[in-house]
Amino acid sequence: MFRPNETHHQQDIFGIEAQLSPDLRKRLLESKEYAFYKEIFCRIPEALFAELYAGEPASRPNVPVNLLVGAMILQHQHDWTFEELLDRVAFDLKVRAALGLWSLDQESFCRATLFNFQRRLRDHMVASGQDKFQAVFDCLTEDQLERFGLKGTIQRCDSTQIGSNIRDYTRIELLVEVVLRMWRVLGEAGQAQHRERFAPYVEAKTSGLFLHRLRRSDIDATLERLGELYAWMVEMLKADYGTTEIHRIVCRVFAEHFTRVEERIAVRPGKEIGSGSLQSPDDPEATYRDRDEESFRGYVLHLAETADPEDDLRLVTDVAVAPNNVEDSRILGERLPQMHRKTPDLGELHTDASYGSPANDGELAQRQILAVQTGIRGPSARAPMRIVQEADLLHVRCAAGHLVPASPTRKHSKAEFAAANCTGCPFAAVCPTQLRKHGGRTFYFTEAELLKRLRHYRIETLPEERRTLRANVEATIKQFKAPCRNGKLRTRGLGAVRRYAFLRAVAVNFGRIYRHLRRLSSGPDALGPVSVPAHRLPEPLHALLTPLRRLIRALRGGGSGPLPAAGAIA
Predict the structure, then answer these.
(1) Which residue blocks in 205-269 are alpha helix, DSSP H?
(2) What is the pTM assigned to this prediction?
């Protein structure tokens, strides 16, 4: 049964805050953790998760959703392991305050509860396609943009490679590793029946040792024998193990690395194996990509953030995760409708060259969003033609500096240069225009070419202070990459990486809000335009309870053990 968490709005008079000295209490209320409680914990939309729980009134109430989600946000903010998270929640007073646990004897959650919650969310994502963590990020960000009066008119975006926590296998290592995992699934009876067929790989114990003992001259023959074994596993083990995950992986690897040629199993050349092929049986969704002379196995993370020079606070507005062999331009094309829905005032988007494409140019133009690109892919034109747009009029400036108006045709637009302008031009040999019969030249261009050229040179028309806006998004990328070790996260799998991306984005935005508010003021009122929660004890009552607490502790012989509840302050 789903039940929203309202208990944190009330506090036992002998709770954490009431038992602190005035100085420590002041430090707690000014801490980053208390700001997290006000800015994030109290605003987590618990109702989004109601459909995950049984609706019968007689069923057991759920562990508070904002407690679980808030704890996971803190985990991704500080890069804690699950063990570290549980220890912090159990013993760190400031972390407990951040999660609304105002009493020391108030239970939080156990490891199994947290893992079951994640499993429930994963299953819901698979069944419905709805990512609850993305919904939490979107709701919190929408609220933050409104409360702090931030404009989404100007934004910038970038992407980065996020490595999955998997081993980097060679081709033979990967093939042998999958064989060994199929062997383990066979059980004692199956292993006894097929021991001879698997013996060369089982005796090596690991795929790494198998490769270590392999001579270079035996590689081709070994691949052929592996191909025959895979063909046998696909056909002969299907009846008993066809529904298992490892057999599905065996079938996938066979299709990616081998092919049937008449009656023979042939090994595919390495160049025929695509970047979307299996990289590890531990993460079937991870893909491969070469970028900047580095190889990556995992995913790509795309993000967008506000970038208006007039705003002192910048927030991440959109996050997406995709296989790393997907181009940035395709990711942007898929995200544009969502970005525009969340920030309808978006009118200027700063990107690098990898985000440009004819399809995106058309989508951006349809939504009246100006694309500002900081670089141009490919070699520079030897005689560039500039298309200049002023209101509804188009002009074309050639490499020699001549400016002529453009006019539409049935299929194209064209700009005609007079023969006098083209006579003796030093760019005549490389000019992209076409010679006319009676002298002069004509430059033809399509709507797609127009949008592309406007995107390439739009940055030159902007005020100086807006030409370098995109560069600062690199700092945001570093914030998302900070927990990575050698470019890899602690986790693996597309679902885990998506969870990391959205919760990390919430944490990044909270950190910026906290620093922004601290800059505005150095006192407790710097914690933002929110009302004081009802659980706060008035100062006179706090002073009155201090001697009462000491008396009760003395009567109890030193105050060991939890104090009994004596009512709640609403």
Answers:
(1) 207-212, 219-236, 238-241, 245-257
(2) 0.84
